């Protein structure tokens, strides 16, 4: 175990040394640390049920759906590609060294414990929201974090076991994937049938997920039961869930550790896959990574000069979208916004479409932190095209605006029909959504111009989010004043749209210089 | 030293390598060549102990996945992946620990000096260029003083001086009795150092002969390569 401990010790030491050597990095980590501490204090100290005391059925439903989704996606990918705790360097240097495979597995498992930190961070961010809407036990925060840890530790182990079993015989992979799909489909059908009967989302969630089968269902039910203890207390389901998960994790880990292991092949493909995913993320292709690219679409590459970039992006969009420009990000924005509307109180003072707009803008901020322009800047072509920087920046971002306009139309027309909103509000929401998309796009370019390729992508992410929030604030204040004076939802949206338009023009003028030469981005 | 007997590897329904057998003796440099998709990488990964396979692979008579075999086996992969946060020297120290080497520092210093990396000992993995990463990867493989070493496209990314140095090292290793297997596409890069040529096509070894035997026929390696893989190359 000593060589593997050496790697962990040295990695940690060099990481800390690296942070102290680079002031920007140090400030970035300090900012993240402050943010986490604030979230921790907020999560533990804030009283629960501030906005309302939501039904426990709704809480159980949300928690179970979240874990269902996470297990479904990670295990399905795990069966397909295997799961891994390892990096390519481990494969090249550790796997080929005379070190017992179970020692390397143990090293990977310890590394994964470090990986749980990221998941805990995301879980931590959701706790204040949950506490606002549900009456939680004093130890509620701990229970959510405990369930998150159980999930993070269990899914790679389960994936590894399933993948090993599946690869030994033809057809097993397909069988497992189909089984997951059937299970997911069965749950979706159950929810829809119940919804048709009750016509009430809370009742439906209680009907489908607040029952003995769901609570004791291995893995998903067990993990959810641990998190649900945050509102229900230490029930039998909690103890069964906790013991079940601990036994599963320990049992799988001990079995794998004691087995005559030959798992290198099982993790090889997934290691290569995750290295490629990491590279894609670095290059700003994380939203398109792993997406199936259609061979043929009814669109040809056209345009001349700078506009060629736009037509190329249009073609790329069409090739990766399900229909027209409707792709993964459209689905994410729409589902998240509608789900958000379903959980906000019915007696809320803020009109529904405005709520959806705010939430959609928040989602867009997170989704569009890395824009398509990032992909263009990674390659040299855009710098070589004989056209002005303004022209090139305009055409390199036009595809993004059209995509946002398309998503905006789908989202707000759908929501407008659902909530019977006036047409003028629907149109103003679509325009604001598209304009904010443009603000995020150009602020991404601005951040790249100001900070170049910062050492850590996580830091860059925070910097971008922070810059966006800072520049949006005046618009938010103006919108607040407008609604206070006019009491008009329409004028408020117009104020937001107006401010975002000013931002778009200003940012565009400031950022076009990024295309003057490669040095401005590296 | 290296014995591969009836090696077969199937990925789901695709038979990537089919009953491949060959040997590399001590003090011999073997080259494994073939068009894309011939099964070279699968063969290399199987020998490195990274894949499950059918057949038998032994290094100095021991199964390739055994600790004893790994102790004398060096491997330079095609993509030199290093640990992001570990320095050049840390990588060498890791190898020394993993292979339980004694008195390794002088050898490490010497290897780094030969590749002009002695002033970059403290540089961390992610700050190195591809070529420098390749040099570190080679240093790691040679630090253990292997009795069998395998290189996958070793010259890619190296500067001319490093290529010259590596060729000299290969000849020194050969002289010391080390068995060497090199997989490459660039025939010119190994033209003057190989002893045995193994040509793979469609998962099978289609040619296996020594330089001496080939010298008698007067055919060049390049000529034989194209004649044995003509169909495949034409298809590409």
Give a short synopsis of this structure.
Chain A is mostly helical and 522 residues long. Chain A is built from 21 helices and no strands. Chain B is α/β, with parallel strands linked by helices.
Please, could you describe this protein's structure?
By secondary structure, chain A is mainly alpha-helical. Chain A is built from 21 helices and no strands. Chain A has two domains: 281 residues, no CATH class; 214 residues, no CATH class. Chain A is 77% helix and 0% strand. In chain A, α2 crosses α5. The two termini of chain A are 39 Å apart. Chain B is of the alpha/beta class. Chain B has two domains: 160 residues, 3-Layer(aba) Sandwich (Rossmann fold); 66 residues, no CATH class. Chain B starts with a strand and ends with a helix. The mean pLDDT of chain B is 88. Chains A and B meet through α1, α4 and α12 of A and α2 and α3 of B.
Instruction: Compute the number of helices of chain B.
Output: 9
CATH topology of the largest domain in chain B: Rossmann fold
Question: What's the helix count of chain A?
Answer: 21
Largest sheet of chain B: 6 strands, mixed
- Major β-sheet annotation of chain A: none
Structural class of chain A: mainly alpha
Fold topology:
The complex is a heterodimer of chains A (522) and B (236).
Chain A: H1 2-21, H2 23-45, H3 56-81, H4 88-94, H5 101-133, H6 140-167, H7 172-198, H8 201-209, H9 212-216, H10 220-232, H11 236-258, H12 264-282, H13 307-320, H14 328-343, H15 352-367, H16 372-378, H17 381-384, H18 389-419, H19 423-451, H20 457-486, H21 489-511
Chain B: E1 2-11, E2 14-24, E3 29-33, H1 40-47, E4 54-59, E5 62-63, H2 67-71, E6 73-76, H3 88-98, H4 105-114, H5 130-143, E7 148-152, H6 160-175, E8 179-183, H7 187-190, E9 196-201, E10 204-210, H8 211-217, H9 221-235
Parallel strand pairs in B: 3-8, 3-9, 6-7, 7-8
Antiparallel strand pairs in B: 1-2, 1-4, 4-5, 9-10
